[in-house]
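Bumping my old thread because nobody answered last time. Still need a sequence for this structure:
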C-alpha cells in the first residue's frame, strides 16, 4: 500500500508532464544495492518522468534491477556490476548518489567522511569522464563535505557546471513539515518549512517564522522542534539499534527531490525547493555552498533565492551554522586538493 500511495503522489506531481515522459530521461542510481539505494530505485521506477533507470553498485545492483523491473510502469531498468560503472553512466541525464556507509549509533555524519569521501570522489571522476553534462544529486553523507568534493573533482576535470550539482537536503524539509504538522494538529501539506544552511546538526536552520503555523511555536516547544529537525536522524539510528540509519525516509526525500528536478528540466515553472548548491549568499564570508530555496528549471539551477526575513532566534541558529558549515566545506575541498 505504501508504494502505491507514493506512486500516486509522484504521478500527481508529474501529471502535467506525463506526455514529456516519452523523452529519454535516463536516471542513474549509484549505490542502488544499499539501504537507501533499494527503496530509492523502487520510487524512481514509479516516477513517470523517469523513462530509463540505470542501477549501479559494487554488489547487488543487477538483483535490485531485476526485482524493480517487474513493476508495471513504463520505464526500462538495467543493473550494472562493480566493473560496469562506465556502462551505467552512458547517456545518463541525472545521477543520484546514495553510495556509502550508513551511520551507526554514536556516529556523526562527519564520522563517515573518510570512507564516503573516497567513494564519492571516485564516482564523480567517472561521471566527469562519461557523463560530464549530467545533473548530479548527492545524498552520500556528510553532504556539507561531499558536495564540495564532487565540485572540486569535476572542476579538476574541467567539466564543473554549478547549475548541475545539488546536495539533497530534502529530508530536513520533509522532517520539518512532518514535525510541525504533528505539534500543530495539521496536515503536513499545509505546514511547509524552508530549511537553509547545510545538512548536519547545527548547520540545519529551519525558518519556522516564515510559516503561518511555525511562527506560532515559541518557547520550549520551539527549542524542541528545532532540535528534532536538526537531529532527527539520531532518533532513527537509535531506534534501529545498530541496524542502520534513516534509509526509507531518505529514499523518499531523494525521490521527491529527483522528481522536482525532472519537472524543472521538463519546463515546469515555479519548481522551488531548498537544496545545497554553489551559492553567492554567503560567499563573502568564504562559504560558497549553501542550502536555500532554489528555483529549478531546464538548466538545473535557474535562480537562488535569498533567505528573506528571519527571526532573532533564527539569526542565532544561522550564526552558529556558518562557521561549522565553512569548516565542513573546506574539509571536502582539502580532500580533493
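Sorry it took so long. Here it is:
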Amino acid at each position: 500500500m505504501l508504494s502505491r500511495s507514493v506512486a500516486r503522489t509522484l504521478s500527481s506531481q508529474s501529471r502535467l508532464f506525463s506526455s514529456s515522459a516519452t523523452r529519454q530521461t535516463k536516471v542513474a542510481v549509484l549505490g542502488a544495492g544499499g539501504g537507501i539505494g533499494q527503496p530509492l530505485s523502487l520510487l524512481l521506477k514509479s516516477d513517470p518522468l523517469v523513462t530509463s533507470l540505470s542501477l549501479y553498485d559494487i554488489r547487488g545492483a543487477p538483483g535490485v534491477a531485476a526485482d524493480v523491473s517487474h513493476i508495471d510502469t513504463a520505464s526500462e531498468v538495467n543493473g550494472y556490476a562493480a566493473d560496469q560503472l562506465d556502462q551505467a553512466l552512458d547517456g545518463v541525464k541525472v545521477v543520484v548518489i546514495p553510495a556509502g556507509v550508513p551511520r551507526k549509533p554514536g556516529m556523526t555524519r562527519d564520522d563517515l567522511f573518510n570512507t564516503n569521501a573516497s567513494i564519492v570522489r571516485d564516482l564523480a571522476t567517472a561521471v566527469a569522464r562519461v557523463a560530464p553534462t549530467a545533473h548530479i544529486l548527492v545524498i552520500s553523507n556528510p553532504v556539507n563535505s561531499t558536495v564540495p568534493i564532487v565540485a572540486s573533482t569535476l572542476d579538476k576535470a574541467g567539466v564543473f557546471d554549478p547549475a548541475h550539482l545539488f546536495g539533497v537536503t530534502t529530508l530536513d524539509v520533509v522532517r520539518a513539515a512532518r514535525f510541525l504538522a504533528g505539534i500543530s494538529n495539521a496536515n503536513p501539506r499545509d505546514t511547509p518549512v524552508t530549511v537553509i544552511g547545510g545538512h548536519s546538526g547545527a548547520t540545519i536552520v529551519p525558518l519556522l517564522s516564515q510559516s503561518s503555523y511555525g511562527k506560532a511555536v515559541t518557547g520550549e516547544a520551539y527549542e524542541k522542534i528545532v532540535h528534532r529537525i536538526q537531529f532527527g536522524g539520531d532518533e532513527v539510528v537509535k531506534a534501529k539499534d545498530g541496524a542502520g540509519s534513516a534509509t526509507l525516509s531518505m529514499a523518499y526525500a531523494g525521490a521527491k527531490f529527483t522528481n522536482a528536478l525532472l519537472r524543472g528540466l521538463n519546463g515546469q515553472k515555479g519548481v522551488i525547493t531548498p537544496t545545497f548548491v554553489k551559492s553567492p549568499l554567503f560567499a563573502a564570508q568564504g562559504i560558497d555552498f549553501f542550502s536555500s530555496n532554489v528555483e529549478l528549471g531546464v538548466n538545473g539551477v535557474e535562480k537562488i533565492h535569498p533567505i528573506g526575513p528571519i527571526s532573532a532566534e533564527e539569526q542565532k541558529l544561522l550564526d552558529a551554522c556558518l562557521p561549522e558549515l565553512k569548516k565542513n566545506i573546506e574539509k571536502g575541498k582539502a580532500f580533493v586538493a
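The radius of gyration is 19 Å. Let me know if any region looks off to you.
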